[in-house]
Amino acid sequence: MEKSQSIIVFVLVFLIQVILNNSVFFGIYLYPVPICFVLLSRDVRTSSLNMLLTAFGTGILLDFLSNGVPGLNAAALTAMAFFRRPVLKRLFLMYGGAEYSCPSVWNMGMTKYFIYSVVACASFFIFYVSLESVGITGLWIYLKRILAGTFVNAAVMLLMSAAIQKRRTF
Amino acid sequence: MRRRSDRIYLTVTVFIILEAVSAFMIFRSGAVQKNVLVASMRVCSDYVEDRWSKVLYWFSLKDVNRDLMKVNAALIARNMKLMNHLERIGMPHDSVADSDRYNLIPAMVISNSVGRLHNYLIVDKGEDDGIRTDMGVITNSGLIGSVVAVSSRYSRIVSMLDTDTRFSVILKRNGTFGTMYWKGTDPTRMAVMDIPVHTPVSEGDTIISSGYSAFFPSGIPIGTISAFSLNDGINYELEVELFEDFRSLKYVYVVDSQDAAEIAGLKIESR
């Protein structure tokens, strides 16, 4: 049941992401990526290889269904998946505890979860912005895009975790 | 433990592959990214090409130097011919006059000594290049010595820095002859003896080769007078500061005198 719920949430968030990518323009500094939330909320015991392939597949699918440069989301989501496990392992030492199986604001606490989200979003946006605008924008715009994308999305993820993951994980 | 490190390597490898695939897709499809990539690659390739050409040029300097030596030898020979022509038509000159009789063979010094009483040089040209014994050796700024032995590819030269060597020179200002020799101490200075006391001499006067030897052309500048003194009451002894620094000698010209054999024959007959 939990698995089917996870799949439903994944599909819903994925569709929302596609709609956001194709229909809503938030300006150059803001790119909402709720799909990150789904990947970040996966069980901490999920192997890194599994995470990488899932993130890459999701990104490729998203790229082909969106009006953008193919490969951008795939590269950024793969990077985020790559850095997720070391962050969790080193900062929070969460392995082994049943209640910590899925990272959420409820079992990690607001501060830790926010830091976790910020690091994950930062790795996503560093790759995304770098590959998208490499050599064509100034450093200040480049930094603003990364900072805005990281903190806004980390805050959105905090809210989503609080709303969707209430007490139980998916 | 090993399985864990293997897993980490596998993860990193897969990550790199996936990123490479993504990057390939981005740079293949994104026009902007493609242009940036092409421009960056062009900058990189230009940089590498520039550096590489400098490296190649550096390695080719030896050949360039050899070519320049040949050009320089040709220019010196041409200069000597012109001086000869000037002399024939009665115009004054301040350099070599009898150069129609000389060919210059450029050579590189591969061994040199200045710290002994009898000093020698070895150059990288020998019999195969037309060098024979008793040929003179010069540079743009002085007499260097004469060839005493040749092999097919190398030649041994007795340096002017030899206490047994004597050769005639003239004071450029008034044409007075003297005999130059080395005292065996300072490689930057030589002495000239047999300058008559009535000859006007002053410090800074230039000494040039006389041309009385079949080895050397006349008029080659050798050095300037740095000091002089009365030697035996009737002759001056001059101290000459050489133009050529024998300690840093790199390239020389071996003088192939076309009349050397004929002159040598006459000298033998006169004995």
Radius of gyration of chain A: 15 Å
Question: Mean pLDDT score of chain B, rounded?
Answer: 83
Just name the CATH architecture of chain A: Orthogonal Bundle
Strand content of chain A: under 5%
Number of β-strand runs of chain B: 12
Distance between the termini of chain A: 9 Å
At the fold tier of CATH, the topology name of the largest domain in chain B is: Thrombin, subunit H
Would you report the number of β strands of chain A?
0
**Assembly state (oligomeric):** heterodimer
Report what the structure shows.
The complex is a heterodimer of chains A (170) and B (271). In chain A, helix 3 packs antiparallel against helix 4 and helix 4 packs antiparallel against helix 6. Chain A is globular. Chain A contains seven helices and no strands. In chain A, 71% of the residues lie in helices and 0% in strands. Chain A starts with a helix and ends in a 6-residue tail after the last helix. Chain A has a single domain, classed as Arp2/3 complex 21 kDa subunit ARPC3, CATH 1.10.1760. Chain A has 170 residues and is mainly alpha-helical. Chain B is α+β, with helices and mostly antiparallel strands. Chain B has two domains: 57 residues, no CATH class; 177 residues, Rod shape-determining protein MreC, domain 1 (Thrombin, subunit H), CATH 2.40.10. Chain B is built from three helices and twelve strands; from the N terminus they run H-H-E-E-E-E-E-E-E-E-E-E-E-E-H. In chain B, strands 1-2-5-4-3-12 form a six-stranded antiparallel barrel. Chain B has a six-stranded antiparallel barrel with strand order 6-7-8-11-10-9. Chain B is elongated, with a radius of gyration of 31 Å. About 2% of the residues of chain B have low confidence. At the A-B interface, helix 3, helix 4 and helix 6 of A face helix 1 and helix 2 of B.
